[in-house]
Amino acid sequence: FPTRRSSDLVRAKASKEWPLRNDFTFYAEQIYRYGIDSENYLRTNLQLVHAHPNQAILANQFDLTYADEQEDDLTWDNRTFRQHQFFAGNRFNYGLYTGGFYNNSDLRLNSWGPFVSWRQPLWREWFYVQGDLNYFNDHREDRDHYLSALLRLEALF
C-alpha cells in the first residue's frame, strides 16, 4: 500500500469489508492521492479471504493502479496465497504473484512467479522484521525468472 509523502496535497481513502457465507470475507479499498510531484494517483484494492477459525487462511488480492507519472494507463497485480499465523505476530505466507499493465488498449501479463514471506516481531511487540523471497520474471526488461529478496523493518505506534 502506498505511504504518505510530504508532497501530497490531497489524500482520500475509503474501504469496506463484507462478511460472506462459509468463512469468506470480501474487502474493497479505494485510495486517491494528489501531490505536487506525483499529481494524480488512484489505486483500487480488492481482497477475498477464506479463513476457518484456527487454520491457515487462503486469500486472493487484486490491485489496480493509475498514476500520472507511470508510462502505462493502468498497472495491475494479483497475489494468491496461503497465510499461516504462528505465535503472536509471526506470519508465514507463500503463493503465486502475477502482474501486468494496460496501455493503449493492450492488456499484458508482464511478470509472474512464486513468493514466500516471513514476518515477526523483533525486540519489541511493536517492531517487526519481514523477509520476502521472490522468483519472478519481467517480460518488459527481457529477464527470465530471477531470485530477489527484500528485508523490511516496520514500527507500529
What does this structure look like?
The model has no long low-confidence stretch (mean pLDDT 88). Strands 1-2-3-4-5-6-7-8-9 form a 9-stranded antiparallel β-sheet, with no helix packed on it. Strand 4 and strand 5 (74-85) form a beta hairpin. It has 157 residues and is mostly beta strands. It has no helices and 9 strands.
Binned, the helix content reads under 10%
Number of strands: 9
Order of helices and strands: EEEEEEEEE
Q: Output the structural class.
A: mainly beta
Percentage of β-strand residues: over 45%
Distance between the termini: 18 Å
Low-confidence stretches: none
Please state the average pLDDT score. Answer: 88
Query: Could you give a short account of the major beta sheet?
Result: 9 strands, antiparallel
* Strand numbers in spatial order across the main sheet: 1-2-3-4-5-6-7-8-9
Rough outline: globular
Whole-number radius of gyration?
17 Å
Compute the number of helices. 0
